Amino acid sequence: AQSVAQPEDQVNVAEGNPLTVKCTYSVSGNPYLFWYVQYPNRGLQFLLKYITGDNLVKGSYGFEAEFNKSQTSFHLKKPSALVSDSALYFCAVRDLNDMRFGAGTRLTVKP
Amino acid sequence: IAGITQAPTSQILAAGRRMTLRCTQDMRHNAMYWYRQDLGLGLRLIHYSNTAGTTGKGEVPDGYSVSRANTDDFPLTLASAVPSQTSVYFCASSDTLYNEQFFGPGTRLTVL
To answer: DSSP per residue over A18-86, as a string?
Structure first.
């Protein structure tokens, strides 16, 4: 079965600095990769996905992610963090009928 | 506004009781899902339905059942609740299996 790892429970960055939230995956076939964000007491919101094509995927709110097949990674990035980006971020991988989420990374952006 | 609704918002339940969590979507999505979210574990898939009339088991199906009588509704039933089923439950839907999922606001369930 496929799996996803988010090695960092918590990421802290200063407002205006670039941010990276890491994700690595394991899947037997072609990966279908997703990033979601969760604000307090809310459901998850879709940010971006990689199905095929360009390795650099652009998504909502200025986020982007880079698919790296050799490193089996799909790190989420943003050039300049905002305080409002503070939230819980989940990486996910889909394979056939199964969707696996990482444990989540809490991003805190400090003014 | 199109989206997914879940009911109830929260519930405290005695162990051994039966409980049905409701989920309705108005986006005419074919696929629907139920997840549970536990601290440190992320979201885990309980059951899914690729289209009306079909259901399948996810990663953690034991103790739960679902039905998909029509496109819009996907209820999750706990036949006899146990404390380990204390969690936040999210319903989601997607138009195809490989597109992004849209999530409901969640149901916070406490089993005592």
So the answer is: -EEE--EEE-SSS-EEEEEEE-TTS-EEEEEEESSS-SEEE-GGG-EEEEETTTTEEEEEESS--GGG-
Per-chain mean pLDDT for chain A: 93
For residue B44, which of B23, B62, B18, B29 has the smallest C-alpha distance? B62
Instruction: Decide if A104 and B98 are in contact by the 8 Å CB cutoff.
Output: no
Mean predicted confidence (pLDDT) in B17-45: 95
Which tokens belong to A7?
């090695």
Q: Which residue is it, tokens 């936040």?
A: B88
Q: Which residues of B touch A89 (CB under 8 A)?
A: none
Collapse the DSSP code of A101 into the 3-class scheme (helix H, G, I; strand E, B; otherwise coil) and give the result.
Answer: strand
CB contact under 8 A, A100 and B105: no
CB contact B89 to A (< 8 Å): no
- B1: pLDDT strictly greater than 70: no
CA distances to A3, A102, B87 from B37, in Å = 16, 11, 6
Per-residue b or e along B4-24, where b marks 16 or more CB atoms closer than 10 Å to that residue's CB: bebeeeebebeeeeebebebb
B85 three-class SS: helix
> Which residues in B1-112 belong to E strands, given as ranges?
4-7, 10-13, 19-25, 31-38, 42-49, 56-57, 64-66, 76-78, 87-94, 102-103, 107-111
Strands A105-110 and A10-14 turn out to be: parallel
